[in-house]
Specification:
407 residues; mainly beta; Neuraminidase; five-stranded antiparallel β-sheet; 1 helix; 1% helix; globular
């Protein structure tokens, strides 16, 4: 069943104690990460210098008519298609602003839709151009998380080609995380929320024995120990008793969106907060085993305590309070060529307030957040096309928007 836009106001990004979030900001009047590194012989890696003061942003609608869009990404296959995923389980393609006449993939019959459930993540195999494999993260008819592989040929993916890789029982209907992305190492990374409920009642964020509240890392090209995937040998907890070998990082509450910087390969995670703070976390390329603190900490603060054990916890590189929003939507590093002043900036926003910020990706600890736009949009996701140009999705209006420098 496809829901009308007004029925999906309880977006997956809703934070705060498991209660309904405020309604999205009213839309203004009418006016995703690449899976492969794009080499530019004229620009050495790390040469970008994001100049926040020089950027004057606006949003241009690129395509309309989507029903609760949550995903915008590309397949890095040379087709220049933008893939847009709807919460109800349909994936469409957009080329030169034109949406395909029929879905690229329709798995709506497999999905529970509404609130924080639905089709939540999409990633294309690094060899998609040759093998046609893509991966989705959705909540099934029982409300549990499914990571599945599908195969595509030409302009369609076959809904009957599903191969389920991983199923995760969900104790509550919220905090499902949802993002998927392939790293430069060729492995699939999977973001999972803490299972829902206010304050992580089951303690999943700090429990290495569960797949909830984690960033997972698996090899989709192998099989081992009865699994339809294999565990990379350098996953950090493969030899720890009681730990799930899929775990790459832990201490996450609801990492709705994460991604990799195609230049530096650093990992960026936007983690939706509880009642006070929204946070952005960063990890150097290849650095696993990090503990991002939840539910001992919320952002840089102790959670429900005046003091807590901060040892071994990785603090966010950026955070903001609920006076500026209620649910962070990450986020991508702009490495495109069209707007030089935007290059090297990590852009993200807030679903409830529509505010967008940026910070320099090559030195995130050295500068404060820069507010770049008050969009008035219900920002549900960011993405880039094959050229590295940036897009975002508006849950309320069903639009895909192009982020442009209006300087």
């Amino acid at each position: 069943m496809r829901l009308p836009t007004v029925a999906v106001a309880l977006l997956i990004l809703a934070s705060c104690s498991g209660e309904e979030p405020p309604p999205p900001a009213a839309p203004p009047p009418e006016s995703t990460p690449s899976t492969g590194k794009q080499e530019d012989p004229e620009r050495p890696a790390g040469a970008d210098r994001f100049r926040a003061a020089a950027v004057d942003l606006r949003l241009e609608p690129v395509a309309r008519g989507f029903n609760a869009p949550l995903i915008a990404t590309n397949a890095a296959d040379g087709s220049n298609r933008l893939f847009v995923g709807e919460q109800a389980g349909l994936i469409w393609t957009v080329v030169d602003g034109e949406r395909s006449s029929s879905p690229f993939l329709d798995i709506s019959s497999r999905i529970t839709v509404g609130g924080e459930q639905g089709l939540l993540g999409l990633a294309f195999h690094p060899s998609f151009e040759d093998n046609g494999k893509l991966y989705v993260n959705y909540t099934d008819v029982n409300g549990n998380t499914v990571i599945a592989e599908y195969r595509a040929s030409g302009d369609r993916a076959d809904p009957d080609s599903e191969r389920v890789l991983l199923s995760i029982d969900q104790p509550f209907a919220n905090h499902n995380g949802g993002a998927l992305a392939f790293g430069a190492d060729g492995y699939l990374y999977i973001a999972t929320g803490d299972g829902g409920g206010a304050g992580d009642p089951e303690g999943n964020g700090q429990d290495l024995g569960t797949l909830l509240g984690k960033l997972l890392r698996i090899d989709v090209d192998g099989e081992s120990s009865g699994r339809p995937y294999s565990i990379p040998s350098d996953n950090p907890f493969t030899n720890r008793d009681g730990a799930a070998p899929e775990v790459w990082a832990f201490g996450l509450r609801n990492p709705w969106r994460f991604g990799f910087d195609e230049d530096t390969r650093t990992l960026w995670i936007a983690d939706v907060g509880q009642g006070e703070l929204e946070e952005i976390n960063v990890a150097d390329a290849g650095r696993g085993g990090l503990n991002y603190g939840w539910d001992v900490m919320e952002g840089t603060a102790c959670y429900e305590s005046e003091d807590c054990d901060r040892s071994g916890k990785v603090l966010p590189v950026a955070e903001y309070g609920h006076d500026q929003g209620c649910a962070v939507t990450g986020g991508t590093i702009y490495r495109g060529r069209r707007f030089p002043d935007m290059r090297g900036g990590y852009f993200f926003g807030d679903y409830c307030s529509g505010i967008m910020w940026a910070l320099p990706a090559d030195r995130p600890n050295s500068q404060p957040l820069v507010k770049v736009l008050e969009s008035g949009r219900a920002i549900s996701s960011f993405g880039v096309d094959e050229r590295g140009e940036m897009y975002l999705t508006d849950l309320a209006t069903g639009e895909v928007l192009h982020l442009v420098d209006d300087s």
